[in-house]
Write a structure and sequence with these properties.
Blueprint lengths: L2 H10 L4 H13 L3 H5 L24 H13 L18 H14 L9 H19 L4 H12 L16 H4 L11 H4 L1 H12 L3 E3 L2 E3 L1 H12 L16 H10 L2 H7 L17 H9 L2 H11 L8 H15 L4
Antiparallel strand pairs: 1-2
Helix pairs in contact: 1-5, 2-5, 2-6, 6-7, 6-10, 6-16, 7-11, 11-12, 11-15, 12-15
């Protein structure tokens, strides 16, 4: 199978960046050939495309799955582009069709059921992450690049939000990362950048979240470092706490709330005065939801930001009680 066949197939099947990202995450997360091929005679996670190839054909088997893992190892342990699947022995266009069919028809995450605003935001994220992967960014570095869209004066292209904080101090391990210039010069990617840069309140199902606070908190979480605040009364121990504090939590509320097991903002309870009024004003805000989610997403640093968010919020929606 040649690179051109892969590219043509992706176009014919309408495999937009979000779907391509899902395939890359699936292949990169596999720890064994069985996780790609399944266990015979049971059907594996990849389904045979009934509309392409031979009728009653086979999906990806163990031997081909092993060759896929061997190719991944030769690339340093990670696929960054689906064209890297070219020229794998016995992995032809028929089996590639099955892979694309599975993730665009059977596991299609769009629409997620969480609203068009959320879906559009995920589409923008995935378009930018795909390009970052192709330019050699790891998953966690792509996340840092996304955070720098709205919190870094060095980001090329759109004008930055007013922000006087030195984020290289808050997240020093991301200092060396520069967002791909392609994001600013490609018209379609520039539009995606504008969506990410301008969205400070994102509707997710029936709730709202500030994605800028969320992404900044996750970036700090993945590149964790301790901080020593000058204000001794401010009980902050990590740069993640510092980032989320700076972006949306008052000193009083932060100091009081961090001793609680934060799962989601609806579970917070404050009984003592004078915290009640100020907390109730802030507790339902997109900022507080993002603050809680940044701490509680079971984030996989070896998976894209897009898929971490889709997995987390769709799981939350599935677990929510029926009204």
């Amino acid at each position: 199978m040649e690179i051109s066949e892969i590219q043509n197939n992706l176009m014919k099947q309408g495999a937009i960046p979000l779907y391509q990202l899902s395939i890359l995450d699936f292949l990169n997360q596999a720890k064994s050939a069985t996780q790609i091929a399944g266990t015979e005679p049971q059907r594996g996670p990849i389904e045979d495309d009934p509309g392409r190839g031979k009728p009653g054909g086979y999906d990806i088997g163990l031997k081909v799955a092993e060759r896929i893992l061997e190719k991944r190892a030769s690339l340093g342990g990670r696929f960054t582009n689906l064209t890297q699947l070219a020229n794998i022995p016995y992995f032809g266009i028929d089996k590639f069709n099955d892979l694309v069919y599975t993730f665009t028809r059977l596991h299609a995450p769009i629409p997620t059921g969480l609203g068009t605003e959320f879906d559009d935001y995920m589409m923008a994220l995935s378009a930018l992450e795909i390009v970052a992967y192709r330019e050699g960014f790891s998953d966690v570095d792509a996340l840092s690049a996304l955070r720098k869209i709205f919190f870094d004066h060095n980001m090329p292209g759109p004008k930055q939000n007013e922000n006087h904080l030195d984020w290289d101090t808050v997240i020093p391990k991301a200092k060396r990362i520069t967002p791909p210039v392609t994001w600013a010069i490609s018209p379609s990617l520039f539009s995606a950048v504008q969506i990410i840069q301008s969205t400070t309140s994102l509707k997710v199902g029936d709730s709202w979240v500030d994605p800028q606070i969320l992404i900044a908190g996750l970036d700090a979480r993945n590149k964790s470092s301790r901080v020593q605040p000058e204000i001794k009364e401010l009980n902050i121990t990590s740069n993640q706490e510092f980032a989320t504090f700076l972006l949306g939590t008052s000193v009083t509320n932060f100091q009081y709330l961090r001793s609680f097991d934060i799962r989601k903002n609806s579970e917070f309870t404050i009984e003592q005065e004078p915290f009640v009024e100020s907390f109730n004003t802030y507790s339902g805000s997109p900022g507080m939801t993002a603050y809680a989610d940044a701490f509680n997403i079971p984030y996989n640093p070896n998976q894209s930001l897009t898929w971490n968010l889709i997995t987390y919020y769709t799981d939350q929606a599935d677990e929510a009680p029926v009204k």
